[in-house]
Design goal:
24% helix; globular; binds zinc ion; 14 strands; alpha/beta; 7-stranded mixed beta sheet; 6 helices
């Protein structure tokens, strides 16, 4: 598997990064894992907007889905289009939410562009991958994801506060892409996001090979502090991801 970071900013785009969007490729299949605000820029710069085979949205917050609304224009109106309907795996309600975000109600649904497949907890095949989705600790229906291919494992926290599900999803993963939105030095609301230390603790408990920190909130954050907090809690390799970062798994 190859992971390419298209965007990694938490909650809103940063000056130098779009919101969460990760391209995961194997056997020539390209899966977009989340597609947040501004991520069309990352897809054009680090990927290929003509080559996406499926989209999986962990949840329907803007910073994880609005790029998929922008992408409608490409798939529907490109000079070399229209492109065939693209599978979108997402929590219930994605079809209505995305149509509403894209335009006026009289424009109708996006069924010519997307084939919506309602995601629920469980394990299912997606292209060459085996996906396991489990509800995590976030105010709306949100799925943490475990992607397996050819004996290798990439786990993704999505957005989540502390919960046991995360270490189960990431158990023994070669790579764990984990959000670290909050600072340990701040007082944070519960059941929403993780701090660097909490991300490190999940990585340690799950015994992952490598911890990739993402979804830092640029305007309020301190990347150095987040990194130090995570590295203090996890002995293995820790890295803050950047747009354009590529990882072979
Ligand atoms: Zn988010
Ligand atoms: Zn969220």
């Amino acid at each position: 598997m190859r992971l390419t970071v298209l965007g990694c900013a938490g909650s809103f785009p940063a000056p130098d990064s779009a919101c969460s969007a990760y391209l995961v490729e194997a056997e020539g299949f390209s899966l977009l894992l989340d597609f947040g605000s501004g991520a069309m820029s990352g897809l054009q710069r680090y990927g290929d907007m003509r080559r996406v085979d499926a989209i999986l949205l962990s949840h329907l917050h803007c910073d994880h889905m609005l790029g998929a609304c922008d992408y409608v224009v490409i798939r529907r109106y490109s000079p070399d289009g229209p492109y065939p309907p693209l599978p979108v795996y997402a929590p219930a309600g994605a079809r209505e939410r995305m149509a509403a975000a894209y335009g006026s109600p009289d424009e109708g649904p996006l069924d010519d562009v997307y084939e919506f497949r309602t995601m629920t907890a469980g394990t299912f095949p997606l292209g060459p991958f085996t996906v396991t989705a489990e509800r995590v600790n976030h105010p709306i229906e949100t799925y943490g994801i475990r992607l397996e291919h050819d004996g290798r494992v990439l786990a993704y926290s999505a957005d989540s506060g502390v919960c046991d599900v995360l270490s189960r999803l990431a158990s023994g993963a070669d790579m764990f892409l984990c959000e670290a939105s909050y600072l340990d030095s701040a007082v944070n609301p519960p059941d929403l996001h993780l701090t660097g230390r909490e991300a490190g603790e999940v990585a340690a408990k799950a015994g992952v090979g490598r911890l990739l920190l993402t979804h830092l909130v640029s305007a309020w954050g301190d990347a150095e502090e987040t990194y130090r907090s995570a590295a203090a809690a996890f002995d293995g390799a820790v890295e803050l991801v950047r747009p354009g970062g590529v990882y072979e798994i």
